[in-house]
Request: fold
Amino acid sequence: MTLRRVGLIARHTLPDALAAMTEAATWLDSRGCTPVLERDSADAAGLGGRWTTVAREAIGHDVDLVIAFGGDGTLLNAASAVAHSPDDTPILGVNLGH
Reply:
């Protein structure tokens, strides 16, 4: 499976999560994969305008994978957004919470 677009969401109040999301976006972009950042996460990380951003509700739309950086709440938040979208997008959680 080739990943062409990956949705990224992070816990807005956790600097390590925002840094990991930024690093992942940079890594994906350097390999020809388009990162699609959840808008509030991108704003919290100071990345507005660098990559495509979408509302939380749209994070699972038109992407091949969603990666959630944070804790259980961030993963559940991403899962809820994907569950309420018409797409059946897989989610990968990166636990950086307490």
